[in-house]
Design a protein that fits this description.
The complex is a heterodimer of chains A (310) and B (410). Chain A is mainly α and 310 residues long. Chain A has helices at residues 2-14, 18-23, 27-56, 75-82, 84-116, 123-134, 137-147, 154-161, 173-200, 205-213, 218-246, 250-255, 267-277, 281-309; strands at residues 59-60, 70-71. In chain A, α6 crosses α9 (173-200) and α9 (173-200) crosses α11 (218-246). Chain B has two domains: 24-135 and 296-363, Periplasmic binding protein-like II (D-Maltodextrin-Binding Protein, domain 2, 3-Layer(aba) Sandwich); 138-294 and 372-408, Periplasmic binding protein-like II (D-Maltodextrin-Binding Protein, domain 2, 3-Layer(aba) Sandwich), CATH 3.40.190.10. Classes of the chains: A mainly alpha (310), B alpha/beta (410).
């Protein structure tokens, strides 16, 4: 009996499936054939547009000029280096990332721990976790623009009730920036929380029971058990969040439109302005290439971190 | 024999099926939502009645000039044929002509329109669009309050300040704002900057060349900032857009307001707290300067990518006709593009101040005419916004406008 099974397996391993024999394909050719659909799809939707973007960035191409595209080499990049608004918007983008990513991580962690508590009815907590995540970004931006409105906003109203005089949030770069960051943290921490919550539920209860027996306190348990075991989930959440933070557009666009002046505009808004409003596709492409490189760097750094951990 | 009969039957059946939609030409008109699409609908209904077989639908979107421009930029740069007729802000024909996005009206006689609009729609000798309605900025004021304190409508900004101080002193109402204007970084803020700048006899662009006068620019920005600092305008003026000004004034919370003509109809509507209490006059001047205002108005263009060129042009001719202009003046309080309509009895009955408005529109100054207008506009409006928010001094603001405009208009 054992022998007969063995021979069957051997026969299958030795001979490729009937249909490949019919096509007379080698293993290598089969691999290529099977990978081709994915490779073609990726080329069409990722490689081609990115390559095209980089290509366009070397041209002077403005639809308002009425002139055909002209190769200008690195001129767009040189203009960028001399452009104060480019530096301002890039700095704003980096600052938003540095503030809102850790901010959303801390708030998201808190929410996840809260949602993981053994409540009798869990759906209200889980639902309220999901709502900010499910809300479109531009809606969130509009809603919070009204919250922070100096005359009709609920934030100033609450401040007034506590005897603090309300401020004109969007009249000051710092306050406007703070309002935008708060909104982004509110909007994105539920995404963090969802991923962390999934991570939390994979941690076996027995570990905490063992820690209880050994006399470890709640805080010790969090730092010795919860946090280390959550690391993979946190890294994944951070990668996604950082990349979307670098692309921040909707919330500042809806809340301040980049104002006052250009003090809260982000790189993505500046790209949008140059391409969609000014129709300067050459310069807009060069800006977009910079944003692409920025995202690439971040991804590479995170991937390194994951690899060294493993 | 049998076969031919069958083929014949099939053929005629398919002809019937095909001919039904082929009869009706369907045109899609883009009207921004702030331009009373429901009133334009009535004009389109008349066109449909006179042209059986043509069906016209409206697409709306974008309640500001910039939002609308962004939308149209995406549609047109994709060479999308879904829109046939487009409403365009007076500042856009130059850009649309440079990009080749509108079909020219060959041999069109533009002398029937107000000269400013004949000019705005003619680019390099080609008529690229036809006027929809005229407009310019005016000073709206509370007739009742000015009469109560025996004040004449101000001729200079200083007189306006004095008038506000007198009224505020007497009314003692913290909710009553002296002057509302546009400080948000929107298209209207470009005019905000230009009004006092022009009033000093300076021009910004001549024959495509920048003729920037820094001193006049500083004075303009300082004037607006002084309204905020002296408590004549509210502190959050940097948040105020055109329609906010309209709403505040209509609610009775403002003595003077800088706005376009469209605000009139609603200020006399059923939701208004100031029916019968509104006066409209020319905008004040800088001391020793002339009264200047900003030319507004919108135009009808035919998309170069429309598949119904003939019908679309016919529709635009109708929308831009004296008949339509009169209808919109009476029902939408939109200023006519034909000089004679300003004296028309029915028009004057609906909006008495239109009788004096012609002279204002005729002397209104156009914003810089350039294909790169969007960049010029962005520079000016974000700077005005930053100065009013107190982020930038008027001097730095003027320097910023100058250096950026130099780069754009080089």
């Amino acid at each position: 009996m054992t022998t007969s099974t063995l021979t069957t397996t051997q026969r299958i391993e030795k001979e490729p499936p009937a249909w490949t024999r019919m096509l007379d394909l080698s293993d290598r050719a089969l691999a290529v054939l099977l990978l081709a659909p994915a490779a073609i799809l990726l080329s069409l939707i990722i490689v081609y547009p990115v390559a095209r973007l980089a290509y366009t960035s070397f041209f002077s191409l403005s639809l308002t000029s009425g002139l055909p595209a002209e190769f200008v080499g690195l001129e767009n990049y040189q203009l960028m280096i001399e452009d104060p608004v480019f530096w301002e918007t890039t700095w704003n983008t980096v600052l938003i990332t540095l503030i809102t990513v850790p901010g959303a991580l801390v708030v998201g962690m808190g929410l996840a721990l809260l949602a993981n508590l053994p409540f009798r009815t869990q759906w209200p907590v889980r639902l309220s976790l999901l709502i900010p995540w499910a809300l479109p970004l531009s809606f969130a931006g509009l809603i919070f623009a009204w919250f922070f409105h100096s005359e009709y906003g609920v934030v100033n109203d609450v401040l007034n009730r506590f005897g603090i005089e309300g401020v004109i949030w969007f009249n000051s770069p710092d306050l406007a920036f703070a309002a935008i960051c708060l909104t982004i943290i509110w909007k994105t921490s539920s995404f963090m929380a969802l991923i962390i919550l999934a991570g939390l539920q994979t941690i076996p209860r027995s570990l905490y029971e063992a820690a209880d027996v050994d006399g470890a306190g709640r805080l010790r348990q969090f730092f010795e058990i919860t946090l280390p075991l959550l690391k993979p989930a946190i890294v994944v959440a951070l990668i996604f969040r950082t990349i979307t933070a670098l692309q921040t557009f909707d919330i500042p666009y809806m809340m301040t439109g980049g104002g006052p002046g250009t003090s809260t505009a982000t790189l993505a808004m500046y790209i949008h302005q140059n391409t969609v409003s000014f129709l300067d596709l050459g310069y807009g492409s060069a800006l977009a290439v910079v944003m692409f490189l920025l995202s690439m760097c971040v991804t590479v750094v995170y991937l390194r971190i994951i690899r060294t951990k493993e | 024999m049998k076969k031919t009969l069958l083929t014949g039957l099939l053929f005629s059946a398919s002809m019937l099926a095909l001919s039904a939609p082929a009869f009706a030409e369907e045109l899609k008109v883009y009207i921004s939502s702030q331009h009373q699409p429901q009133v334009w609908r009535q004009v389109l209904d008349k066109f449909e009645a006179a042209n059986p077989g043509t069906k016209v639908t409206i697409e709306t979107g974008g309640n500001t000039s910039e939002a609308q421009a962004q939308y149209l930029n995406t549609i047109m740069s994709a060479k999308d044929s879904s829109l046939d007729v487009l409403i365009l802000d007076v500042i856009r024909p130059a850009q649309f002509a440079a990009a080749g996005w509108t079909s020219p009206f060959e041999g069109k006689d533009m002398s029937v329109y107000l000269p400013a609009y004949a000019e705005a729609n003619t680019v390099d000798g080609k008529v690229v669009a036809l006027p929809a309605f005229a407009d310019s900025m005016f000073l709206y004021y509370r007739k009742d309050l000015l009469e109560k304190y025996g004040i004449e409508p101000p001729k200079t900004w200083d007189e306006l300040k004095a008038a506000v101080k007198k009224i505020n002193g007497g009314e003692n109402n913290a909710d009553l704002q002296g002057l509302s204007f546009q400080g948000k970084a929107i298209e209207g803020a470009v005019c905000t900057f230009l009004l006092p700048y022009w009033s000093q006899g300076k021009s910004l662009v001549q024959n495509g060349k920048l003729t920037f006068d820094k001193d006049a620019a500083v004075k303009s920005l300082k004037l607006w900032k002084s309204f905020v600092d002296e408590g004549i305008s509210k502190k959050n003026i940097a948040e105020v857009a055109t329609d906010d000004t309209r709403k505040e004034f209509q609610a009775g919370n403002v003595v003077f307001a800088v706005n376009w003509s469209y605000a009139w109809a609603q200020s006399q509507g059923k939701d208004s707290a100031v029916v019968g209490k509104v006066g409209v006059t020319r905008l004040p001047a800088m001391a020793g300067g002339d009264q200047a205002t900003c030319l507004g108005g919108w135009e009808w263009g035919v998309s170069a990518y429309s598949k119904h060129q003939e019908e679309a042009k016919k529709l635009v001719e109708y929308l831009s006709s004296p008949e339509s202009s009169k209808f919109m003046a009476i029902n939408g309080s939109l200023l006519p593009t034909y000089p004679s309509l300003y004296q028309d009895a029915e028009v004057v009955k609906a909006a008495p101040w239109f009788a004096d408005a012609k002279q204002v529109v005729e002397t209104a100054k156009p914003r810089p005419v350039t294909p790169r207008y969007n960049e010029v506009s962005e520079t000016i409006r974000t700077t005005v916004n930053a100065v009013l928010a107190g982020v930038m001094t008027p001097e730095d603001g003027a320097t910023q406008i100058e250096s950026r405009l130099k780069r754009i208009l080089r």
